């Protein structure tokens, strides 16, 4: 048979018949005299009428008519809602897979395509500015020189200095973007020396197509001429196929030059820094350079 807890005092843990009441008259006075005697011993905060603690910070005010807000609260809510979507973090893109599918189906607008292309190029540019590309720069395969007869910036590309099989081709792409980004904001020309290049110097057409697709629109718009110096029959055929079927926008800008003298009709010799081996090769194959006063662009 279990213990009857009603016979025991909860304060002094003795039988109620033996408890004098002095331990619990503070909480449960047995008469008005005991109540008056215990008043000085009662703490200042005894809670509400039910003895429950009252914490002002936890009080929740409930409106008289649920579902309606006061004017000030409505204005505050309108102000908060007005800020939704204004922060950059809130401007999220749509379904990327859906966008790519629309591109394949030809359903995306030109504006949407341009924005997507610009975002992609900006990501490449940020990588190019953050990554260490000193090993690619040391090759001296791409550099800026003077200006042509029209005052346009001249960029040099030396094929022999590109060891395709030995370099990180993605870092080469990043280096190209890093060097060319500020050049292409205005009109420019490219001079490519194909002189004495071997199989290990030839960039893959897929890489060139990828590069052409990645670069910003200003690269293509402001490129006014691409001078292909010392081409071979094979390189001419390859370039024709590439510019005809892969990057048709470049075809009309390519000009094949068999001699440096032809190049100097477009760019003055003092305005272009030519590698020594190119000068030696041209002098050996085409003879010494003879200055000419005629020019053709």
From TrEMBL:
Q: Entry's InterPro entries?
A: CRAL-TRIO_dom (IPR001251), CRAL-TRIO_dom_sf (IPR036865)
Q: Name one Pfam family in it.
A: CRAL_TRIO_2
> Which residue intervals define the domain CRAL-TRIO in the entry?
135-283
Origin superkingdom:
Eukaryota
Q: What is this protein called?
A: Ganglioside-induced differentiation-associated protein 2-like isoform X2
